[in-house]
């Protein structure tokens, strides 16, 4: 069984990776699994989402941990940390 999630990228990630896409993964996948699947593509995906890079995630518009489990139809957004001034 699989789940399909809608990915969205914001700020500098959007400039590098585009606006977003749909991605199908095995049932029980987590936010970390999505990030790893994207990194496995290599190129700009591997660079933008590399381990140690400051990237936040929001699952259905709520900040989420990398351990959060995905459900079919979820929206998962990735974005750099926001700074204020």
TrEMBL record:
It comes from the Bacteria. Keywords: Nucleotide-binding. Gene3D superfamilies: 3.10.20.30. The keyword Transferase does not apply. NCBIfam families: moaD. Belongs to the MoaD family. This is Molybdopterin synthase sulfur carrier subunit. It comes from Pelomonas cellulosilytica.
């Amino acid at each position: 069984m699989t789940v399909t999630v809608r990915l969205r990228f914001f700020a500098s990630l959007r400039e590098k990776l585009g606006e977003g896409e749909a991605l199908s993964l095995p049932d029980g996948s987590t936010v970390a699994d999505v990030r790893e699947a994207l990194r496995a593509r290599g190129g700009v995906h591997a660079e933008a989402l590399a381990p140690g890079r400051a990237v936040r995630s929001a699952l259905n518009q709520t900040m989420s941990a990398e351990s959060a489990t995905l459900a079919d139809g979820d929206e998962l957004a990735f974005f750099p940390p926001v700074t204020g001034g």
